[in-house]
Amino acid sequence: MTDRPNPDNDMQWRAAGDRIQTLLDSCAAGGTGAYERAQQLVREVVGLYGAGLERIMQLAGPGVAERLATDDLVASLLLVHGLHPHDVHRRVSDALDRVRPYLGSHGGDVELLSIDGDTARLAFRGSCKSCPSSAVTLELAVEDAVRAAAPEIVAIEVVTADSAPSGPAVIPPESLLAQVRSGWHPLPELAELEAGDVAGFLVAGAALLVCRIGDLPLAYRDHCPVCDDSLAGAHLRETLLGCPRCGTQFDVVHAGTGPDGAHLEPVPLLLREGVPSVALAEPTGARA
Asked: Which part of the chain is the Rieske domain (predicted)?
């Protein structure tokens, strides 16, 4: 027996919530009374297993509770019932620690300044201060991590590192939670990439280029900003990705920076439920 989570099982329980909501919505077709009875049934079932979870946590003790909280499915249930052993500050800090290696791969970093009520204040550092596309990439990664670990956080204020002490320049909270939306797309094929490999993928109509530096996969839009052409056929030389058409070199571990301010457009690439996944941003209004 193994302790490693099964990605297929994880995706199944993620989809279970959608199926429950679909069933509830279908009950509405039977009238208000039927819908209210269905909702009451769900509340009763949730309350029952919540009471069972609370009893389990009491009997398990702190050590086992800590281990249970590391499992995504169990942790989500503990959060629903207010039984998670860690407070919101600890959960947000741990979430940022998990994405910090990814942020560093794009030349950035993030610090948790404070949590005030339902608002987290963060300071971004590095390439996110000068590269708009990298800023969006880092914001999406952080937004996803914070939302999963602390659903009670409904707003994020981002302060630039230079203004963090005095706080005059604050990016509006909607920069993270409203103006930028993302759809995550699993790419299990990325697990097969070897160090130094470069591969192209078409995801939701977007052409992407993924390269692996050591154990770290990095994703970019398949577009050279210098010659305005595809990067198909590009090769890595250490950390430099060379455009096969114009020869421009881009540093893929530092947000894809190139000469004279040119840079590739990074795409968030993280493990979600154990599966490598990429996020594609959509501006507000792109969805109906």
From this structure: 184-278
Regions of the chain short of the pLDDT cut 50: 1-7, 9, 129-130, 163-181, 283-288
Residue 250: exposure state from Cβ atoms within 10 A (0-12, 13-18, ≥19): buried
pTM of the model: 0.55
The DSSP 8-state label assigned to residue 226 in this structure reads T
pLDDT score recorded for residue 134: 53
Q: Which positions ≥6 away from 46 have C-beta within 8 Å?
A: 80
For 222-237, write each residue's pLDDT tens digit.
999 999 999 999 989 8
For the beta sheet containing 266-267, the strands, ordered from the edge strand earlier in sequence to the opposite edge, are 198-203, 206-213, 216-221, 266-267
> Are the C-beta atoms of 176 and 120 separated by less than 8 Å?
no
CA-CA distance, 93 to 234, in Å (whole number)?
37
Nearest to 149 by CA among 246, 60, 84: 84
3 state SS for 87-107: CHHHHHHHHHHHHHHHHHHEC
Write down the pLDDT at residue 242.
Answer: 92
Token digits of residue 48 = 């029952």
Q: What separation in angstroms does the CA of 192 have from each of 4, 152, 198?
A: 18, 36, 11
CB 224 within 8 A of CB 248: yes
The predicted structure's pLDDT at residue 166: 40
* Rounded-to-10 torsion of CA 270, 159, 156, 209: -20
Question: Which residue is listed with tokens 């999963």?
Answer: 148
How many residues are listed for the chain in this entry?
288
Helix (H) or strand (E) holding 170, with range, is strand 170-171
Report the 10 Å Cβ neighbour count for 257: 20
